[in-house]
Amino acid sequence: MAKQYSPSAVERSWYAWWESSGYFGADSASTKPPFVIVLPPPNVTGALHIGHALTVAIEDAMIRWRRMSGYNALWVPGVDHAGIATQVVVEKKLMRERKLTRHDIGREKFVSEVLKWKDQYGGTILNQLRRLGASLDWSREAFTMDEQRSKAVTEAFVRLHKEGLIYRDYRLVNWDCTLRTAISDIEVDHIDLKEETMLKVPGYANPVQFGVLISFAYPLEEGLGEIVVATTRIETMLGDTAIAVHPEDERYKHLHGRYAVHPFNGRRLKIICDAELVDPTFGTGAVKITPAHDPNDFEVGKRHNLEFINIFTDDGKINSNGGAKFDGMPRFTARVAVIEALKEKGLYKDTKKNEMSLGVCSRTNDVVEPMIKPQWFVNCNHMAKAGLDAVRSKKIEIIPQQYEQDWYRWLENIRDWCVSRQLWWGHRVPAWYVTLEDDLDKNLGSANDRWIVARNESDANLEAQKNTWLAI
């Protein structure tokens, strides 16, 4: 007999026997009352941590108790394909080992590389679950991108679109210039800066300045002088389309409806009144408006029917809308160049330290850029109401009860969910675009009413023909 207990030896042999004996399998033909838990699928990218262990221990206790209490208990195992996280890992591996980007090898070969990586490293988590003794029904093991799950995702997307709950629209999204994709709010980390701070940003050799407020002037038409505004993102002034003041601010009443002139492109910027946005006691009381690159300005742009001018390429460079002087510059290189150009014209005023919250991507550490992009969204209002009603009626009980307030606060302030990503690894949106003979290449995909959502290309063709369009 061994002098001491060896968990690694004992537990491994016991678990193998449990699994081979089928003790954790659920019987679909059983007349016992069912009890089902779907294991929240951990990301295929890594290994389990203590949080996973806690969840597994709690769920295992629940499923074993139900099984011993006479229920047909099913605990479904699986792993998540983890779109962004997995793509980032494989892209880094490609660059490290072969000095290649995903664009160098193309979509098909890149997806093949990801699948190889998944087959090689994805088993780590499944083995760890077994080591934890989790009584999972391994005959039902799932992967969120296997054939069955992929078919279910497509079906759900098509049904929700037909019900009007999924739609395509141009909205301001969190854009990662390294990944070249929209990311969710939960993938944005916020860094609180108390003063001027130099931060390392991916793709830049030198640290970039944040935590400052830069003031500069716009010249006014008709020789009326100038109007001073301030911003923490001076490069976005290249996309300004208006200047807002408070309607009751006496300093600017003579400028209502008049225009300033953009110093680099000659664009006329209307002086608009907006009591909702402008605080006349803050700064100069005049606010530059960049509808395409700021959440508050986006709403102002909609209220006042302003022009939305995107000045960035997908990888974070200034595009042709930013003017020939800055076209092609990385955005934070342009930040410095714009200040120098303003100084040359005598329009730069000063730079002061400024407390701010900076959004960065949790995956890449790149600074998140608010950008207007055509994306697919889920209308969350109906689901939020159902969730609120279920807790208020006690159909769902939240324990501890104090967390009910978090539930209410979250769902009462819900926003529509952006579900599309510009990734190569993940489920593809089941949508096809109808092209017509006189379409210009630069406009392809821009008309929201020409997107057809369908289960496959054949169904999309049939649907397009019903709408009297040409076949895809």
From TrEMBL:
GO MF terms, alphabetically ordered: aminoacyl-tRNA deacylase activity; ATP binding; valine-tRNA ligase activity
Organism name: Zea mays
Similarity-based family: Belongs to the class-I aminoacyl-tRNA synthetase family.
UniProt cross-references to SUPFAM superfamilies, sorted A to Z: Nucleotidylyl transferase, ValRS/IleRS/LeuRS editing domain
Catalytic reaction annotation: tRNA(Val) + L-valine + ATP = L-valyl-tRNA(Val) + AMP + diphosphate
EC number of this enzyme: 6.1.1.9
InterPro entries according to UniProt: aa-tRNA-synth_I_CS, aa-tRNA-synth_Ia, Rossmann-like_a/b/a_fold, Val/Leu/Ile-tRNA-synth_edit, Valyl-tRNA_ligase
Annotated Aminoacyl-tRNA synthetase class Ia domain residues: 14-460
Keyword annotations of the record: Aminoacyl-tRNA synthetase, ATP-binding, Coiled coil, Ligase, Nucleotide-binding, Protein biosynthesis
Domain of life: Eukaryota
Protein name: valine--tRNA ligase
Lineage: Eukaryota, Viridiplantae, Streptophyta, Embryophyta, Tracheophyta
Top enzyme class: ligase
GO terms (BP aspect): post-embryonic development; reproductive structure development; valyl-tRNA aminoacylation
